[in-house]
Amino acid sequence: MRDACSMNRRELLKAAGLGVAGLGALAASGGLEAPQPLAGGRVGDPYKGLKVGVTSYTLRRFSLDETIRIVKELGLKYIALKDVHLKMTLTKKELQAAARKIKDAGLTLMGGGVVYLAKEEAAARKGFEYARDAGMPLISASFDPGVLPMVENLAKEFDIRVAIHNHGPGDKVFPSALGAHEKIRGMDKRMGLCLDVGHTVREGEKEVETIRAVQDRILDFHIKDVNRRDAKGTTVVMGKGVIDLPGVLKALLEMKYQGHVALEYENDTKDLVADVAECFAFIRKTLGEMNGE
To answer: Pick from 80, 83, 117, 130: CA 20 to 30 A from residue 21's CA?
Structure first.
């Protein structure tokens, strides 16, 4: 069978249940047709047990209602919310209503963020109250490393996991997942990492080696592809960049990773939803080929 990278756009979209008719509907209405059964009548989970979903930042140009619809039409079950869709200034009742809306749509809210926690405890506490009221079990977070003990105490108090997000070159606090991993050694298990594989590569680190080195603390995972292995690297459709995505997916399967594998697509292309669909088609195809399908 051909490598997934060699498939053209139409074939990849068909693998995701988004053939020519689906693209036509997308162009006409801004939506997607419902995903079709797996090719060849296969049944089962095309993601092989991985909780593959999306960060809502990927769909930042859409409203929350539109984002929920698109995620469902892509055949996904998992979502993490960015404040563009769930403002931190909302009341407790408004946050709870949004959480119910997501649940009623059949989606699982895996977490939120990135949440930028303040140095002062009273202000940082608001980030945890936000997550609690929205029913988030986890926040992808960034904060000054000097307040790690305070953040750990809040994580324990609220029983909410904190996944430190590496942002690569230019990030003055946690550019590297490897560096963040060193800082949380010996801390409560609610303190972990949101490993962003794109920023890992942009930082000049090897993606599969990094995953294996920090796997005991990966609580959240942002998956994407980038076009360069340096600070100038930018997001591209999966399979068109430099990241070893088959190796990344294989590593996650081998470690039996149970957290969110969330697509974070940062390219502001005019064909955003079609690009996103192509990324998920690539993941499905790559995982299928690992099992000889």
So the answer is: 80
Q: Is 266 exposed, middle or buried (0-12, 13-18, 19+ CB in 10 A)?
A: middle
Check if the beta carbon of residue 227 is closer than 8 Å to that of residue 233: yes
- Measured N-to-C along each axis, helices 148-158 and 121-134 cross at an angle, to the nearest 10 degrees, of 30
In the beta sheet, which residues pair with residue 262?
A: 53, 222
**109 CB-near residues (< 8 Å, 6+ apart):** 79, 80, 81, 99, 102, 103, 134, 135, 136
Radius of gyration of the chain (CA): 19
* Segment 183-220, tens digit of pLDDT: 999 999 999 999 999 999 999 999 999 999 999 999 99
224, with CB counted inside 10 A (0-12, 13-18, 19+), is buried
Is 70 within 8 Å of 62 (Cβ atoms)?
yes
CB-count exposure of residue 1 (10 Å: 0-12, 13-18, 19+): exposed
- Could you read off the pLDDT of 124-166 as tens digits, one per residue? 999 999 999 999 999 999 999 999 999 999 999 999 999 999 9
CATH topology of domain 4-290: TIM Barrel (3.20.20)
Q: Where are the alpha helices (DSSP H) in 30-112?
A: 64-73, 92-104
**93: Cβ–Cβ under 8 A, 6 or more apart, which residues?**
none
Please spell the DSSP secondary structure of 213-239, one letter per residue: HHGGGEEEEEE-EES-SSTT--EE-TT
pTM of this structure: 0.87
Give the start-to-end residue ranges of the domains of the chain: 4-290
